[in-house]
């Protein structure tokens, strides 16, 4: 559970994620996927629509979603890439949008686009079990199962790769048919649980 202290300011949160509050709060439904007219057009084209509410007031508001783990990510002018279903709360000053993920998104069953959060402030992301944060450097690329991927930050390049080989085709493979390879400099958030994905099994 995430406790957010508000002193007249606001946060943006996943719709329906408020479980309790103390003090005076107002709740206003917003449309996720991007800010402004460009965000509206992007949402219509991509279908990346997340139900978001603005919470504003004085007091403490508590957020949760199906008892999943909550991880805080601090941004200082950078960008966070996160699946819409894994985004719980952001500071109101952070901008949200959508970006093309290509085959990575398709392999996860989440479509071809993912949510971006950028600016300065904190975002709370969800994971099925305690997430670990793995550092990627030029010397140490990282390969992640699409179903375990949660989010990433930094200057990372992604490559969708197949683990399909002869053993997979004859039914003796590991089941890890597709992976995402990250190269560059940045951090990747991985959960200790796998979503059912299109690419997980052949």
Largest sheet: 11 strands, antiparallel
CATH class: Alpha Beta
CATH level 3 topology: Double-stranded beta-helix
Average pLDDT for all residues: 81
Looking at this structure, what is the CATH superfamily? Answer: Mitochondrial biogenesis AIM24
Strand content: over 45%
Describe the structure.
The chain is mainly beta and 202 residues long. It has 3 helices and 11 strands; from the N terminus they run ββαββββαββββαβ. Strands 1, 2, 3, 4, 5, 6, 7, 8, 9, 10 and 11 form an 11-stranded antiparallel sheet that branches. The longest helix has 11 residues, at 36-46. The protein is elongated and about 50 Å long. Mean pLDDT is 81; it is low at 41-48, 104-111, 164-174 and 198-202.
Précis, in short:
With 202 residues, the chain is mostly beta strands. Helices cover 10% and strands 57% of the residues. The chain has three helices and eleven strands; from the N terminus they run E-E-H-E-E-E-E-H-E-E-E-E-H-E.
Topology summary:
Elements: E1 2-14, E2 18-31, H1 36-46, E3 51-63, E4 69-82, E5 87-91, E6 95-100, H2 103-108, E7 113-127, E8 132-136, E9 142-144, E10 149-162, H3 166-169, E11 178-190
Antiparallel strand pairs: 1-3, 1-5, 2-3, 4-7, 4-10, 5-7, 6-7, 8-11, 9-11, 10-11
Which key features would you list for this structure?
202 residues; mainly beta; eleven-stranded antiparallel sheet; 11 strands; elongated
């Amino acid at each position: 559970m995430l406790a957010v202290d508000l002193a007249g300011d606001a946060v943006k949160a996943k719709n329906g994620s408020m479980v309790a509050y103390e003090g005076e709060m107002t709740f206003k439904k917003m449309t996720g996927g991007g800010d402004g007219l460009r965000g509206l057009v992007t949402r219509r084209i991509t279908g990346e629509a997340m139900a978001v509410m603005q919470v504003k007031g004085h007091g403490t508001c508590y957020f949760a979603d199906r008892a999943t783990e909550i991880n805080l990510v601090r941004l200082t002018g950078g960008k966070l890439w996160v699946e819409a279903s894994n985004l719980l709360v952001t500071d109101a000053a952070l901008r949200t949008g959508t970006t093309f993920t290509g085959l990575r998104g398709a392999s996860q069953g989440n479509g071809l686009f993912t949510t971006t959060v950028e600016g300065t402030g904190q975002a709370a992301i969800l994971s099925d079990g305690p997430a670990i944060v793995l550092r990627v450097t030029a010397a140490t690329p990282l390969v992640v199962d699409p179903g375990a991927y949660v989010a990433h930050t930094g200057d990372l390049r992604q490559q969708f790769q197949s683990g399909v080989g002869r053993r997979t085709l004859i039914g003796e493979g590991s089941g890890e048919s597709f992976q995402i390879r990250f190269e560059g400099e940045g951090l990747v958030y991985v959960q200790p649980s796998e979503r059912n994905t299109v690419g997980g099994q052949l």
